[in-house]
Specification:
Layout: H1 12-20, H2 25-39, H3 46-58, H4 60-72, H5 78-123
Length: 128
């Protein structure tokens, strides 16, 4: 198993997280792996390509912060990360509402089609 050297942490975000975290090597090592992935320019093979999407769902703010530093050179403050997470949540809610509206519209169209088919059925002599 590869040994992680905490002195090799690349981003301010992970350094901040280390200072806030009790002896939880798993979390910090995961963040260090994210750093490595983005520092090398992304996934080199399919196995590396699937891992980031899983980690992004589990630690979205961490991935965003690390990416911001390593790709764009911008260190995000805690406030900026909280605002990003809030905006992300608002966007999820907007998408959920849009999906619900679309689902209701499709169901209504289905009911209307069914009603029209039934009327036509009855008009041409079908049994109710």
């Amino acid at each position: 198993m590869e040994r992680h050297r905490h002195s090799e942490i690349k981003t301010e975000f992970v350094k901040r997280e280390l200072r806030r975290t009790r002896w939880d090597r798993g979390y910090i090592h995961t963040l260090m792996l994210i750093e490595e992935l983005y520092a090398q320019g992304g996934a080199r093979h399919m196995a590396e390509g699937t891992w980031p999407s899983h980690v992004s769902r589990e630690y979205p703010a961490a991935v965003h912060a690390i990416k911001s530093e390593l790709i764009y050179g911008k260190v995000l403050s805690d406030e900026e990360l909280m605002e990003w997470m809030a905006e992300r949540q608002r966007e999820k809610e907007r998408k959920r509402k849009a999906w619900e509206e679309e689902r209701r519209r499709i169901e209504q169209e289905g009911r209307e089609r069914e009603r029209m088919e039934r009327e036509e059925w009855l008009e041409i002599g079908g049994l109710p």
